[in-house]
Amino acid sequence: MKKSLLSATIALAIGAVSAQTSAQSLIFKPNEDSRFNWASYEALKSTDLSGETVTVFGPWLGDEKASFESVIAYFEEATGAKVNYAGSDSFEQQIVIDTQAGSAPNISIFPQPGLAADLASKNLLTPLDNKTGDWVKENYAAGQSWVDLATFKNKQNEENLYGVFYRADLKSLVWYSPENFADADYEIPETMEELKELTQEIVADGGTPWCIGLGSGAATGWPATDWVEDLLLRTQSPSVYDQWVSNEIKFNDPRVVEAIEDFGWFIRNDDHVDGGSRAVAATDFRDSPKGLFASPPKCYMHRQASFIPAFFPEDTVLGLDADFFYFPSYESKGLGNPVLGGGTMLSITKDSKGARAFMDFIRTPIAHEIWMAQKSFLTAHKGVNIDLYSSESAKKQGEILRYSTTFRFDGSDLMPGKIGAGSFWTGMVDYAGGKDAKTVATEIQNNWDTLK
Amino acid sequence: MVSSANTRSPLTFVVHLTVLFLVVMWTIPTAGLFISSIRDKDQLSVSGWWTALSASEQRLVTRIEIPKDQTMENGVYVIRGNVFTQAGDSSVQQFGYSSLKPQAFEAGTKAQMKRGKTLIVQANGDYVITSPKAFKGRGQRVFYTAEVPPRFTLDNYREVLTSEGLGKSFINSLTVTIPATIIPILMAAFAAYALAWMKFPGRALMVAAVVGLLVVPLQMSLIPLLRSYNVIGEFLGTGSKTYVGIWLAHTAFGLPLAIYLLRNYIAGLPREIIESARVDGASEFDIFRKIILPLSFPALASFSIFQFLWVWNDLLIAMVFLGNNEEQLVLTGRLRELLGSRGGNWEILTASAFITIIVPLCVFIGLQRFLVRGLLSGSVK
Amino acid sequence: MGQLISALFVMSIGVLGCAVYFYGSNLLLDFCFPTKNRPHLVIARNLRITNTIRPWLFIGPALLALGFYLIFPVFDSLRLSFLDRTGENFIGFDNYRWLFSSAEFFESFKNNMLWLIVVPTAATFLGLVIATMTDRIWWGNIAKSLIFMPMAISFIGASVIWKFIYDFRSGDDAQIGLLNAIVVFFGGEPQAWITMPFWNNFFLMAILIWIQTGFAMVILSAALRGISEETIEAAVLDGANGVQIFFRIMVPQIWGTIAVVWTTITILVLKVFDIVLAMTNGQWNTQVLANQMFDWMFRGGGDSGRGAVIAIIIMVLVIPIMVWNIRRANAEMEGR
Fold first, then answer.
1. Scanning A59, B215, B335, C36, which has its CA 20 to 30 A from the CA of C100?
2. Phi and psi at residue A152, in whole multiples of 5°?
3. Does residue B330 belong to the interface with chain C, where contact is any CB pair within 8 Å?
């Protein structure tokens, strides 16, 4: 009696959950704009997934969520499947809870390969077939590196490919308002030396050069890790960077500490940042670029990845109201022009026919093009039509990414989650708060040691 | 009595003042939240809520759009328009054309710009820009400082209830809270009666256990329970995140307090009533149903308010046992998400926070009497 | 609307299921072993049987729930604390060794101790003072209701409210956070309060004090009313002043209640999690044990072993309170 009641209740509880919102309409009508790769959309229709539900869980919220859902709509329309996307700001914690509880979504969108590697080592991810790996190698710019980034060991110590990168970020960018630069008669710096001079020039003119915000809810501190990585790539060779990421070079190595202190040059000087250095850690990273557009401007420059325009004031036109320049390298070091990037990776956390089909969909050009044509999306997929980038600046970034020579993936995302999404963040917040670089780095290294 | 009141009056005056001060301290945070949540979002982000009734000064930028057909007047090209997009009684104080000097000119004066261009912005927002040559390229930016009258709006609530998914979370919270309040009351009432009036081996030990369990930190239970839920969920094929799962979790975590409170209350009922009912041949179930339940209504009510508040306000258990997806997220979880994703959007945060606290506040204010009585039965002897 | 209806349906089935169990099982018992209209011997036997079984019917569900949700996890956590991060391989005392060599742990332990000292003390003291004062004025009940009100607000809601108070705007912008506005009004420099190491702990504690003072006040106020008028009048006749009466006569009389309030708040503080999670997530040296445990369990892949060790520590901290609680309850029962 009780048991049947219980199961009836469970069935209902689940029924209540699957009561759904209706599918949204397609934002670009198929076969209308010939710049899109509609053939890849039509090909999808051969897969029939009626009645199948695919759950997707990722970190995207707000505008990004809306854009991704507009992409999903094409998959739903073509295959008849139902896709539920859920976004969470605490994705890093929630996915661990969910996978361990056995209630994982079909597909998870990892902003950090390090976290995915961790789950793979517990056999919580489903490996993809070899074909996928070969395909990525062929169709992505710097394909091998994207494959390597998504290849992890499982519990049995076997290496497999676990994910496909869907959206890339370019981190080495400095955003500014061209008109404010023109008003004040500033020029775009081409070397790090010039950038530092410009910083001092702006201070001398009574302005504030930088807006920097490290706040990000539970992930507070991550924007600083990008700074340090970018500066490490500009002061040391790429191999030092690689060894640092794999901890062959210790975190408190003088070369790393030097990069942290270089970051300190920008933020530990009250004149250099809006609000003074103590405001840095307290300011939300989503709020901080708004200073560029304030009247009078609160700052002139903002170093942040390519996704940041999503947080600019509503009617900002990229390329007109706001533009970016490459975060330059030291002329004196002769290290070329390295590029730091990142990306989100889709993995199967619960296998199903629908999940497999969705992973196939993610490889089609149309899945990339739909988002490209909206905003804040870059891809290393070579099969897409670059003309679809929504703005000149996006196109420019797409090109930087596509033709980069020294490309390095965001190091904090590759480190073990407890470091790259924990101690490193906290350490940078402490450093911004006035702690000594060497002490902070040693603390991070100590934490890393306890993980071994 | 009268005379003693007179002698005390200076002291009483101080007491009045102190209590008034404390009351203000305790209510101001919530009041600030509420006032902020009904303010216009542009004002909310530039001025404190305590200035809500006075006009606020905002520094704004607008861009002059260049029309397709440019008109000439007196040999110069002219564009006219108004800087305000929203009609109202806002007024421009100063304006400027360069980001370096956004307040260079008083409203109504003429600004001489480069290449013979001029710009005038009137106090009511009307502007005229002239140029000897046709305008081309980008429209001129106009910086202006405006005095904006106070504006109150329910838009913030409309937005969070529709686009931020708060409405759905509200229902989810109810779905979690109501059964998770009623089920433990039923369980605890029966158990409390047994512990208070029935004889069976191990009773004293069980009472001690319940008291001990009162303080077990529930964080302790998370990992083991999650693992068990996983196994059970797989066995039943339902997954581990169900409403039933969270009801039972809340039930169990609420039980020690519930049993403790109710046992204290039920044990304090007069022995004669129960004994005489027993002598009359009533079964224990009947005694419980017909005598104990009605008599212990105050304690039941007080515990249910407690449990309701606790479940409604819980974040941890919901985060672990119900999951974070769009369909199941409860209000507290939603608020936490918003804190992360809309960190700087105070209009969203304040309105959402107010929605999450309105139900417990109403319950609390309406049923405070019962709550206090229950609290006392558990603590004061 | 559809969601509302199905939610209602799910709820009523859940609640009904529970009611049906109690009603049904008792009816079944009475049906199998009737105690009416039968020979005396049968009735006596049946009565004996039902009297043995029924307590277990009554207490059974609660016992099962408590056992599964509270007692079993305590032992399982203990087991997990000796296993590695996946919860599969035995690693002896490694997790404990890690814990006691971890600076992170000592920081959160230190902060927790700070919380344990400050919050119960402040909330109880304020509660006592307010209770004493509100009892003397005609609008005392209204004042009490208002001060009691924050208790209804969730920790996370309270965090939003206080985040707004602590909000910090850089440069010359108008402050929209009340605290900074006051500081600026008196000519001070605005501060980013929650990032100031050490002191930020107190800003977080203020939130919990704000919530808990009402609780302390209500209970202490009732206890104060229980003090007999005669003792106070006697003290007045002896020439004692207000402060002396308060500390020498009133406080000792309600000492037992103060202890109860104190421990209740202490237990709550040990579990404090939501406030830290929402306000700082342990950054800027505000980490506390409960949040650290959550962090180890679920962040960056999770480590159930280390998470469990921290849980054990919290448990150990609670044990003295538990023992005291049981003793008190026993004494009470004997006194009845």
1. B215
2. -130, 170
3. no
Residues 2 to 31 of C: which have CB under 8 A from any B CB? 3-4, 7, 10-11, 14-15, 18-19, 22, 26, 29-30
The pLDDT > 70 percentage for chain A reads 93
Q: Tell me, yes or no, whether A20 lies in a domain.
A: no
List CB contacts (< 8 A) between C304 and chain B: 223
Q: How many domains is chain A partitioned into structurally?
A: 2
Contacts of A9 in chain C (CB under 8 A): 10, 13-14, 17
Residues of C with CB under 8 A from a CB of A: 2-3, 6-7, 9-10, 13-14, 17, 20-21, 24, 86, 98, 101-104, 168-171, 191-192, 194-195, 197, 277, 280-285, 294-295, 297-303
The reply to whether residue C281 touches residue A217, judged by beta carbons under 8 angstroms, is yes
Please indicate, yes or no, if residue B74 is contained in any of the structural domains.
yes
**What subunits touch chain C, counting only 3 or more CB pairs under 8 A?**
A, B
- The CA distance from B67 to the nearest CA of chain C, in Å, is 35
Query: Do A217 and B143 lie within an 8 Å CB cutoff?
Result: no
pLDDT in tens, C35-93: 777 788 888 888 888 888 888 888 888 999 999 998 999 898 899 899 887 777 888 89
**B148 and C CB contact within 8 Å:** no
Asked if the Cβ–Cβ distance from C62 to B365 is below 8 Å, we say: no
Q: Do A92 and C21 touch (CB under 8 A)?
A: no
Is A279 close to C168, i.e. CB distance below 8 A?
yes
Kindly give the parts of chain B with pLDDT less than 70.
1-9, 87-88, 239, 324-326, 340-344, 374-381
Residues B80 and B137: their CA atoms lie apart, in Å, by 17
Distance between CA B272 and CA C269 in Å, rounded?
42
Q: Which of A353-367, A394-408, B325-339, C186-200 has the highest mean pLDDT?
A: A353-367
Domain-embedded: residue A372: yes
d(CA A310, CA A308): 5
- Give pLDDT, residue A186: 93
What tokens were used for C48?
């004996």
CA distances from A203 to A18, A302, A450 (A): 57, 15, 43
ipTM over 0.95: no
Query: How many other CB atoms are there within 10 angstroms of residue A21's CB atom?
Result: 9
A274 lies in the same domain as A331: yes
Exposure b/e, A381-410, CB count within 10 A at least 16 = b: bebbeeebbbeebbbbbbebbbebeebbbb
- The CATH architecture that domain C95-335 belongs to is Orthogonal Bundle (1.10)
Q: What is the pLDDT of residue C334?
A: 65
Residues B223 and B321 in one domain: yes
Residue A240: HSE in the Cβ half-sphere, 13 Å Cα cutoff: 18
Cα–Cα distance, A162 to B275 (Å, whole number): 70
The CATH number linked to B329 is 1.10.3720.10
- pLDDT the model gives residue C53: 85
Answer whether residue A379 shows pLDDT above 90: no
- Give the domain CATH number at A347: 3.40.190.10
Same domain, A261 and A279: yes
Expressed as residue numbers, the domain containing B39 is 2-51
Three-state SS at B289? helix
Low-confidence winner among A367-371, B154-158, C242-246 (lowest mean pLDDT) = C242-246
For residue range A265-289, list pLDDT tens digits in order: 999 998 999 888 878 888 888 888 9
For B:202-231, CB contacts with C below 8 A are 204, 206-225, 227-228
Ramachandran category for residue C187: left, alpha or beta (phi over 0 → left; psi -120 to 50 → alpha): left
Query: Residues B275, B196: one domain?
Result: yes
Residue B378's pLDDT is what? 56
How many whole angstroms separate alpha carbon C306 and alpha carbon C295?
A: 10
Categorize the per-residue pLDDT at A7 as very low, low, confident or very high, splitting at 50, 70 and 90: very low
Average pLDDT for C200-211: 94
